[in-house]
Amino acid sequence: MQLQVKGKNIPVTDALHEHAERKLQRLAKVLPQWDEPPLVELELSVERNPKIDRPQIAEITVRTKGTVLRACESATDMYAAIDQASRKLERQAVRYRERRRKRRQGSDHELERMAPLPDDLVIHVDEPAPSLVKRKEFALKPMSSDDAALHMDMLHHDFFVFRDADSGEVNVVYRRKNGGFGLIVPLSA
After folding, report:
1. Among 85, 133, 140, 182, which residue is least crowded by beta carbons within 10 Å?
2. What pLDDT is recorded for position 1?
3. Which of 104, 100, 18, 112 is CA-nearest to residue 64?
């Protein structure tokens, strides 16, 4: 596992780095063993706003051959934020591993590469696999990203799909956790 730790508004001390390595080593045992080790990016940040109850934020992104897993947690203490995010990521990794195992029941080669989980890492996930429960169709109106953000805000939604008036491409504007807006623009292949 390749671990990269970055700090935003916080210096990354050796103690924080070692704590993160210790917590994320369990994750390496859960993920499927590929030829390349997974890249794990940990971004630690501190919000300077005194109104925020839990200003210490740990965001972990794991890039593997098969998928990208991400967890973001906040706490009053950075060590607690790392612990919470790593546990959340472990649960995601177990679900991902089990889904791969179920999909590949007939492929012995893939099952050989997935060693059984150690007993201390077995996480019982009682949640059912996500399924499509609703389908919605609507006309995409050409508009600017500012207009789309305004529509999203008026509808109290977390995201809004629209057609960009300039390029004609389908874009998505979304609400970020810090209160700002983000824009997703597809790249032409």
Report:
1. 133
2. 75
3. 100
Residue 68's Cβ-count burial label (10 Å; 0-12, 13-18, 19+) is exposed
Domain ranges for the chain, please list them. 2-121, 142-184
Contact yes or no for 53/76 (Cβ under 8 A) = yes
> Which pTM value belongs to this model?
0.56
Task: List b or e across 161-174, with b for residues whose CB sees 16 or more CB atoms inside 10 angstroms.
Answer: bbebeeeeeebbbb
- In angstroms, rounded to a whole number, what is the distance separating the alpha carbons of residues 123 and 18? 24
Dump pLDDT digits (tens) for 54-83.
Answer: 888 999 988 877 678 888 999 989 999 999
DSSP structure class, residue 69: E
CA dist., res. 90 & res. 96, Å (int) = 10
Residues 6+ away with beta carbon under 8 Å from 11: none
**Phi/psi-derived region of residue 119, left when phi > 0, alpha when psi is between -120 and 50, beta in every other case:** alpha
Out of 3.30.505.50, 3.40.50.300, 3.90.1150.10, 3.30.390.10, select the CATH number for domain 142-184.
Answer: 3.30.505.50
End-to-end CA distance of the chain: 31
Just give the CATH number of 2-121. Answer: 3.30.160.100
Which of 34-38, 148-152, 160-164 is predicted with the least confidence, judged by mean pLDDT?
34-38
Residue 135 has pLDDT above 90, yes or no: no
